[in-house]
Write a structure and sequence with these properties.
Layout lengths: L1 H5 L5 E3 L2 E8 L5 E5 L5 E6 L9 E5 L10 E6 L9 E16 L2 E4 L2 E6 L18 H15 L4 E8 H16 L2
Parallel strand pairs: 6-9
Antiparallel strand pairs: 1-2, 2-5, 2-7, 3-4, 5-6, 7-8, 7-9, 7-10
Length: 177
Amino acid sequence: MYNDALANIPSRSDGDAVNVFIETPKGSRHKYDIHESGLVRISIELPEGVTFPFSFGFVPQTTAEDGDELDILLVTAGSVPAGALIEARPIGVLKMENEEHGKMARNDRVVAVATMSRIFQNVETLSDMRNGFAWDIEEFFDTYNRMIERPFKICGRGEKDEAMTMLEDAEARFRGD
């Protein structure tokens, strides 16, 4: 169902703005993903007191280095439902590795701000966010990966230019360039 609809959604909506399909909403104790049927399903339940600090999703019509769509951490003032399509501006990247198929592999997350957000409308790069923002998110990912007993490593951070390069590379990979 979602897969068919997403097949017609371009990666970008206007200039640097991207379309983000939300799998897991901010504040959720559940991680959602798209099942092979095309429906959104619950894949993991987080421990009591642990919730997703921001909405998580992906950019349609992209292929990241790990073979999945380009992962997005979406910054908004509130939560949006799973299955929502939100226009956003990439502002940076959190560089990470986790174990995939028995070996460590990069699994970076592009950080983007919803274009409709009034609170974050002046944020252009990751360094524009409040002190401790990136650290908080890195700590969430560390906790999350420990919970599912998966080796994890933080590799650094990047600003908007690196996020845009990742987007362009993922678009080219999707097209087969």
